[in-house]
Amino acid sequence: MSVTLRDIANKAGVSIATVSRILNNDVTLSVNEKTRQRVIATAEQFNYTKHKRTQNNRVQKVAVVQWYSLTQELDDLYYMAIRMEIERSAQRRGLQTVPIYQNNMEDIPQDVTGIIAIGKFSDAQVEKFQLVTKNIVFVDYDSLAAGYDCLVPDFENAVRSVISEFVNEGIEDIGMLVGTETTTDNEIVPDLRRFYFENDLRQKNLYHSEFIFAGDYTSMSGYKAMKRAIERLGNRLPHGIFIANDPMAVGALKAVQEAKIAIPQRLALISFNDTALVKYVYPSMSAVHVATDEMAHAAVDMMVKRLKNPDADPCKTVVGTHLIKRQTTK
């Protein structure tokens, strides 16, 4: 007995039209990922193979532009996780993805219908994207003022939660290892974590400029920044330090352990991003968790909507965060 779309629809609990559009990779269909996967799984269970793409449902090509090089990405699992999940999610939605590293504009095919750009970009780079397509979604970069869809983590409340945690532990001397970096065309990228950190501490009359040390978001820079802090401050080393990202946190942890400083009794540490790097070091690192999978899925949803309605007003999505306490806080 042959299987019909009605059989799949009844089993999956959706309409026949929804089944047809999902199986034909209709990128304009607005449906949540769980429903999409349930329909596909049901079709596979029934061994249904009759669905074919029509000319109107041709696969659209989207460039996934990573601002890091492949080598840099391997050192920062945060950006890698976002890129990989964007590619998986896009392919599930029927989009063909083209990975582009280090913002290499020359590698972007001219036939792409959209760009999902991950990382930080200068105004000049944004203008170059516009020459390829107007359908652009930025991830981890606030492009709303420039007129483009974007997703960003909630830095403000994330930093506030870190400072609150330290204060609740009785720690009022709080430092930070900040990150400094530039776009691939050498434009300085401001760190909003530092902005909110300094602003919140000033409001609490707890700010000390000498407690801030800079790195470049790499593990080695975190190691060197923490060693400078230990050597310069001695007994005045803060009892709590917030670290801008996980690679720096791993390097900082090594410097603290070499100095035989007790964690968390003498020094509490909190990182930002919560990738596997900080979950499996010892002691495991408390960290602000950024939902990279949710960011990736939302970015693809934005792109699908943008492809459906290129003239819609731009949207900005702020992705929530939460603090996960492990062994580096009390």
UniProtKB/TrEMBL annotation:
The keyword Nucleotidyltransferase does not apply. GO terms for molecular function: DNA-binding transcription factor activity; transcription cis-regulatory region binding. Residues 3-59 form the HTH lacI-type domain. Keywords: DNA-binding, Transcription, Transcription regulation. The keyword Iron does not apply. SMART domains: HTH_LACI. Gene3D superfamilies: 3.40.50.2300, lambda repressor-like DNA-binding domains. SUPFAM superfamilies: lambda repressor-like DNA-binding domains (SSF47413), Periplasmic binding protein-like I (SSF53822). Transmembrane segments: none annotated. InterPro entries: HTH_LacI, LacI/GalR-like_sensor, Lambda_DNA-bd_dom_sf, Peripla_BP_I. This is Galactose operon repressor. It comes from Limosilactobacillus panis DSM 6035.
